[in-house]
Each structure stands twice: as structure tokens, then as C-alpha cells.
Amino acid sequence: MAFIKITELFSVSCEGTPYPNEIKEVKLPDLKRKLDPYRAGGMDSPVPTDLGGEALECELTFGGSVTPAQVTKDWTSKKVMGKTWTIRGYHRDQETGVGTGVEIVIRGRHNIDSPSLKPGEAGESKVKLSLAYYKYIEDGKTLIEIEPLAHKHIVDGEDKLADARNFIGL
Predict the structure, then answer these.
(1) C or N terminus of the chain, fewer CB within 10 Å?
(2) Is 116 helix (H, G, I), strand (E, B) or coil?
(3) 3-state SS of 89-104?
(4) Alpha carbons within 13 A on the beta-carbon side of 73
(5) Are 117 and 65 in contact (CB under 8 A)?
(6) Count H helices, E strands: the chain?
(7) Residues near 126 by Cβ (< 8 Å), separated by ≥ 6?
(8) Within its chain, how far is the Cα of 69 from the centroid?
(9) Per-residue pLDDT of the chain (170 residues; tens, 9 = 90+)
């Protein structure tokens, strides 16, 4: 029986540039489907119909009163895939003491919420990424991989869009 896992350490890099002591928090994307209630004449209540995935967003919180220069330079990426960010975390099961490695790979464009400047305060800035690619790997096993432009939506090894891709000739 597993108990809660606690994040002990994590690191973040962008295109190979590490930010080991600058990022205080990572908010991973919420995984949401666009569900629309459908009720026909013979139904007592509506049922949710799946209209596809919702936009994926991730948020990085940088400590300090200055957003790193490279992050600012990459702000206006001309490519929908933007830059590749890699997040690696180490989590430990509090019951068994066993550690788990997690790797998250994301690609996309980003916006920057600039910090407030106050004397004697560290401040923080937030980088909000709108994702075109998301991959979540735990202990070497890919649990989620989503790439809308490639019509890819894989959950725990099952390619949810394989039949649709094959049918439309992709």
C-alpha cells in the first residue's frame, strides 16, 4: 500500500540551460477534457460528451526581483512549439521510503508576469507557458504524452487517437 509522495528536490532547465536555484515552484498543467452536457428526448438527465482536450498551461515561479535574461529573450518565440523545458523531480513515498523519479517535458510559448520591485524583498516573477507539447514520465515509463499538432494523445501506453488518425489517413 502506497502512502503520499513528497517532492524532495526538483530541477528545471530550458534548452539545456539549468535554473537550479532560481525556480521556487512549478504548477503542472491541469488535464481537462471539454465536456458538454447532452440530453435527448428520452433521457432523464444529461450525460457528458467529450469534445476533446482543453488547452494545457504550466506555470514556473522564479524567485528574485529579476526574470532571467534568457527567459525574457525567448518571450516572443515565432514557433508554436517554442522552447523545450525539462522538469525533473524526486519524490519519496512516506510509508516505504522508496524514491521515484519524475521527468516532465514541455514545449510552448510563454508570457511573463514581472515582479514587483521593493527594497529588502526578494520578489518573484511567474512564467506562464501555453503548451503545444506535454510529456509526463515516472520511473522511466511515459504516463501522458500530448501533442495536438501531431494528433498524439497517449495515456498509460494507450494511444487514444490512433483509430481517428488511421481513419482520416494520418
Answers:
(1) N
(2) coil
(3) EEEEECCCCCEEEEEE
(4) 4
(5) yes
(6) 2, 12
(7) 59, 60, 61, 62, 112, 113
(8) 22
(9) 667 888 999 999 998 889 888 899 999 999 999 999 999 999 999 999 999 999 999 999 988 877 676 777 677 777 888 889 999 999 998 889 899 999 999 999 988 888 878 888 888 889 999 999 999 999 999 999 999 999 999 999 999 999 999 999 98
| Lookup: cell for 151 | 494528433
Scan for cell 527567459, then name that residue: 71
Question: Would you tell me how many other CB atoms lie within 10 Å of the CB of residue 58?
Answer: 21
Q: Residue type at 30? A: D
Q: Which amino acid is at 26?
A: V
Buried b (16+ CB within 10 A) or exposed e, 15-50: eeeebeebbeebebbeeeeeeeeeeeeeeeeeeeee
